[in-house]
Amino acid sequence: MSRTPDPRRRIGIMGGTFDPIHNGHLVCAEEARCQLELDEVIFVPAGNPWQKGGGVSSAEDRYLMTVLATASHENFSVSRIEIDRKGPSYTLDTLRVFRSFYDDVELFFITGADAVAEILSWKDPEAVLNEAHFVAATRPGYDIKNMEPVLEKVSVMHIPALAISSSDIRARVASGRPVRYLMPREVAQFIATRGLYSSRGYDLDSGTTPKG
């Protein structure tokens, strides 16, 4: 059943650290685009993810990886809005800026269920939930009970590929395990070239770190 024609643009905002971006993120964005009939999905790498603490790759590297991963999709784009903004990255500020870009728009903020579960610790959580429709992407079987405080204002979308995680990819690179098929090859090549996540370098084709 198709939705009633609506002159308002329907924009998905895909927020995340993207350290690195991987196929799970891309599958999630495409599934949201189709399920929610979005006109566009805009990826927004966090500039200064204040809740992550230290140890995050540079904002510019994370931005470039996201551009590489999304370049071939005509309905995906990447915004520097948080990369270029000084200070901590707050979702509320980002959503308000995007809303100001359009005369009439429906915003859908797409992120992981684990992030949504922590939304009450965000800056002005009630205001954040009023700025956009929130979509919590999760894998089948994930326990969403910890989302109960905000569940009535959030839509849950199950994505099998979200079993892939950025933290596992970083660990794989650091230990020399393969990452092929977990992310676009262009992103894996960028990681190898830049020497991200491993002080010893990483051989993309063999999935190993150099000896010695």
Structure description:
With 212 residues, this protein is an alpha/beta fold. It has helices at residues 23-35, 59-70, 91-101, 113-116, 125-131, 166-175, 185-194, and strands at residues 9-16, 40-45, 76-78, 105-112, 133-138, 154-158. It is 32% helix and 17% strand. It starts with 8 loop residues before the first strand and ends in an 18-residue tail after the last helix. It has a six-stranded parallel sheet with strand order 3-2-1-4-5-6, with helices on both faces. α2 packs antiparallel against α7 (185-194). It is globular and about 50 Å long.
Order the strands across the largest sheet as they lie in space: 3-2-1-4-5-6
Poorly predicted ranges: 1-5
Radius of gyration, taken over Cα atoms and rounded to an integer in Å = 17 Å
* Total number of helices: 7
Strand content: 15-25%
Please trace the helix and strand order, writing H or E for each element.
EHEHEHEHHEEHH
Structural class: alpha/beta
The total of beta strands comes to: 6
Shape: globular
Distance between the termini: 60 Å
* Major sheet: 6 strands, parallel
Mean pLDDT over the residues:
87
Helix share, percent: 25-40%
